[in-house]
């Protein structure tokens, strides 16, 4: 398939000088994103960058004034890729507000659903969204010298993935027709077959409710589910081997690929997969049940772990609207003075559409933690859990303080152990590598939960939900969960049995955020500035800019609701 | 104005699958080139070029507009006054004005595009509406087709790809145009209520209802609207014939319907109508259920067990002869059943018991001291 570089009608096509290059829209990301850049074509690098969220739907406004029971099914529909994560997070927010305990089986089943959602989403990104940027037609067009080199380079992971040369991997990554592209579409369907047995449908599960889940789970469901999860043992380790080979190849060909999308490793995650026995939805116990999660909550600042306390993580969230299409609010939400004025519990959403200009240009708010621009994603979860080294769930994943050892049980390939190491440099390629390893971690975590559900069924602990009453007094609730693209938080205040305010912040709100009031750019913007153009002279496809953007796997539906 | 969920559903479809359209491997269907922000190769102007060509009428091929998500009232904002929904930084609603008239067909996928959905629910701050509302009731595509609607939040992927197949094969000159109902839904998918094919509808018929989430029975009392919702998810399955809301224990919230979500809210609350219909069903269904259990008592016994007056399993609760009432009921039931035809009950009575029946006892194996572990540990089962 012929690859034609992007042309830019109406703009000078010169390859020299510094000029604005707009990507309206950026494709192969979830949701509506545009990126406007200034590129110095002489020094061949990006000088300025702005990330524009170009869609606002008003979910938070639609949720205000509703019966709180509506929150789960409405909020789930914020995102068609990770509806399960939003549903589970909304349920947690309601459980905190309702003072409601959830039975272990329901927590385990919800965990299994979100893990399965990641099993769909992570390969979807690695092979359908990002993968084509490393495929034969693209590499041939942008870097003919790399293609020639790939044809002569043997792939180290051939025993795992079956591709003899790097060029074979690149051919298989070709959009639509490549073998790896087609396999990812197929495997995403396999994950969803399992998912719908408990979730009812995908996306947007039909079974999540406050205090539990309404699924009818029997051994047949778990049997069929397990057979699907097991298929991901081989597939995920194959994925990791493929990205290891690809990334090592690019680095060896040109060490400057480490600079593509590079920024300091400053990232956040709320942890993921609640311990069914530790989780009690009480705010006063939030630090305890946060620590008990399969993946540890945490904030990493310049590569150092700043905290693993979920309460501190929650307290430090702020949304700044200096560069976003919103009006300032006064006295929004709970008006809780123990939290910053920009904290989601105190915030209100007042949209004010305007043309993108220098000062306001995005529908995404500038979400910050501790006033810092944080990136987020499955890789942040892997990294933080690795270095925190406190997760109590070590059946398959063993954090080492500097990485994660993952035991993969036998499937078609023999049982093995993989290890991900905290990388020396942080950029687009390492994001994809870590995402591939997070995929392996997710596969065995899903299996862990299948085993747990089976065990609970065997013990006769199959109770799925706790009955509840909707409180009529003033309450606050927060759900702090995880999606394939990082943390998800739903902040709700309610009174007289109605939702007063409902605010949503996600990993992509952090990652795709615009500049804040102090002028600090969002993570994608920051990573683009300084990204070198490494394609062959004369190529104007800006492929490395695309690689950098897509390495974040931003989901704009999550970023802006 | 979408969540990408319909695209995700589309990618999950298998009958046919997204890639089969792109490969051109579907018999009778022309090869389809997909211009889609989530799947296309190029970004920026290189991505939007084919859209511009289509709008200018020089694409050189027929095209179908598929809208995912509702349409905000952006055209009511001042010109150059921004947008709620844009493709790039151009209003998505403007692209629809340019592209819909010249299209082979305009298809709305998912409940946002078909009926407005969540963005158009109470509290709608963006002026969101459906594609039909936006284009107006007089809209016809260049091939004379009104807006086609494939609803669902998210829709079953196969429902969309199958509609596309029906449309494309007709456009390719094969057979009649597909049949759509008065709201532009593919009639063969949305003619029936989801309850009619629901695996839990049998519970409703027998008057048994789930009281708590996780219960296996009919979900009406925990908030299921299935009896009045047009959808095919339990029959078709959500994914490759697996799942489907009620199949997994999820109550129907009417997500395929024009009234979604507000006309089905609050969720998890029994629809008011169910108090009447459910109440009636409990009375007559309860009677039917009891009669059926009576028939099942005979059906659950081999004819040989009737002759021998025992059930040869340590699992069996009642091993001995049947009660007088059971025998009496069975007698009359068989009388009716075999009336005017062969009476197998009588024929079987004449059949001798096999000589090697209960062979282990005959060989002197003594079971009297063995403990039935499974039965000791088994949780008590509720009556079905």
Describe it:
The complex is a heterodimer of chains A (561) and B (384). Chain A is built from 18 helices and 16 strands. Chain A has 561 residues and is of the alpha+beta class. In chain A, the strands form 6 sheets. In chain A, strands 1-2-3 form a 3-stranded antiparallel sheet. A 3-stranded antiparallel sheet of chain A has the order 6-7-8. In chain A, strands 11-12-13 form a 3-stranded antiparallel sheet, with helices on one face. The longest helix of chain A is centred in the middle third of the chain and has 35 residues, at 219-253. The model of chain A is unreliable at 1-12 (pLDDT under 50). The longest helix of chain B is centred in the C-terminal third of the chain and has 27 residues, at 273-299. Chain B is mainly α. In chain B, β2 (86-87) and β3 (90-91) form a beta hairpin. Chain B folds into 3 domains: 5-189, Rossmann fold (3-Layer(aba) Sandwich), CATH 3.40.50.700; 192-300, Cytochrome-c3 Hydrogenase, Chain A, domain 2 (Irregular); 301-378, no CATH class. Chain B has a 3-stranded parallel sheet with strand order 1-4-5. Chain B has a two-stranded antiparallel ribbon with strand order 2-3.
- What's the alpha carbon Rg of chain B, rounded to whole Å? 30 Å
Number of helices of chain B: 16
Sketch the topology of chain B as an H/E string, one letter per element. Answer: HHHEEEHEHHEHHHHHHHHHH
Largest sheet of chain B: 3 strands, parallel
Q: In total, how many domains does the architecture of chain B comprise?
A: 3
CATH H-level homologous superfamily name of the largest domain in chain B: NADH:ubiquinone oxidoreductase-like, 20kDa subunit
The name of the CATH architecture of the largest domain in chain B is 3-Layer(aba) Sandwich
**Large-scale geometry of chain B:** elongated
Q: Are there runs of chain B of 5+ residues with pLDDT below 50, and where?
A: none
**Widest beta sheet: strand line-up of chain B:** 1-4-5
- The side-by-side strand order for the widest beta sheet of chain A comes to 1-2-3
